[in-house]
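# nightly structure sweep
# worker-07 picked up a monomer target from the shared queue
# config: single-sequence mode, recycle default, output format = structure tokens
# input follows
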Amino acid sequence: QVQLVESGGGLVQAGGSLRLSCAASGTIFSINRMGWYRQAPGKQRELVAGISTSGFTNYADSVKGRFTISRDNAKNTVYLQMNSLKPEDTAVYYCNVYQRWTEYWGQGTQVTVSS
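# output follows
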């Protein structure tokens, strides 16, 4: 079993920055894709950013140029650097990790951006 521990969420003003971290622990063999999703109240969960083992990344159009996803394979950790935050970025952010054929999710961390 793999457990994901998220950190870095909080309250910031518009234009500010946050860095989210998600560390995988437990039975780690070979983690493949890692990413971040978010869900705002009353809205559907959406993919924010993903990163492959080789470092190839993809982003939602709404965050391109503002967010950067990265990973440290030695630490089994994925990061999301969020700059120029907007109120519409307010959501619960969930870490997502694939190992073999199994998908794992973090508990979520709240990000709130005030005007």
